[in-house]
Amino acid sequence: MTTAREKLIVALDVPNDAAARALVDQLQDSVGVFKIGLELLFAGGVDLARELAEQGHKVFLDAKLLDITNTVERSTARIAALGSTFLTVHGSDSRTLEAAVRGRGDSDMKLLAITVLTHLGPDDLREQGVDLAPEDLVLRRARMAHEAGFDGVVASAREAARIREEIGSSLLVVTPGIRPAGADHGDQKRVTTPADAMQAGSDYLVVGRPITTADDPSAAAIAIANEMAAALQS
Fold first, then answer.
1. Alpha carbon distance 205, 215 (integer Å)
2. CB of 15 within 8 A of CB of 212?
3. Which of 96, 169, 175, 185 could cross-link to 202 by cystine, CB 3.0-4.6 Å?
């Protein structure tokens, strides 16, 4: 049975691999997955991803791929060769999603479609020329990802329940924008607590600053995992 700790993904959003390695040392017994995003990716993150995978850790490469189909397909293949457990691809069109599925090939890497970034609200989408509400756009892109053969989506907990109702449990829901009760929301708009996210149907939670900037990152991670576990049991 998967534990709450295994469902907790820590975002290593730090400026260099030395800082990331220090966090890995502190958190390797407290979280299930290490996420490497764009900032770290260009500061030693590729080598770190390979090393962590070789050591048996689960790695979430948050590359947010979006390009012509040949580039997406080939980049996905290279990332799969690193041993990554998860890879993100923007879920804005089916051709991009299908290219990633081809690039993944027969590897075990799970593909996650970015639906709507959690720092965006209705006004931001209208600025992009999108008239749909965030939750409606998330659901449309989740359906498209499911049809393309993706394993899951990245979506806020506010949309997780609708995804479960419309698509079922076959699609993983990975939720960022998690803030423990009373924590600062920072630059996030569509945020939820760990307990609310798990009760809404999220499978994995991505947590960054509430863990990585805490005085005791390991204790912060354990507290969040305990809140997740309590929600799963309620």
1. 21
2. no
3. 175
Taking only the tens place, the pLDDT of each residue in 192-202 is: 899 999 999 99
Nearest to 60 by CA among 41, 34, 78, 27: 34
Sign (positive or negative) of CA dihedral 120, 121, 124, 128: positive
pLDDT at 185: 45
Catalytic one of 35, 58, 64, 189: 64
Q: Which pLDDT tens digit goes with each residue over 13-71?
A: 999 999 999 999 999 999 999 999 999 999 999 999 999 999 999 999 999 999 999 99
Other beta carbons within 10 Å of 109:
23
For the chain, the structural domain boundaries read 5-233
State both tokens at 206: 């991505």
* Interatomic CA distance for residues 41 and 47, integer angstroms: 9
**Which residues have a Cβ under 8 Å from the Cβ of 52 and sit 6 or more positions away?**
24, 34, 59
Is this prediction's pTM over 0.85?
Answer: yes
3-class state of residue 90 by DSSP: strand
Q: Is 177 helix (H, G, I), strand (E, B) or coil?
A: coil
Buried residues in 121-145 as b, exposed as e (16+ CB within 10 A)? eeeebeeeeeeeebbebbbebbbbb
Q: Which residues pair with 77 in a beta bridge?
A: none
Q: Strands of 14-171 (E only): list them.
A: 33-36, 58-65, 86-90, 110-114, 152-154
The residue-averaged pLDDT of 106-127 equals 89
Residue 35 annotated to the active site: no
Token pair of 229, please? 């576990």
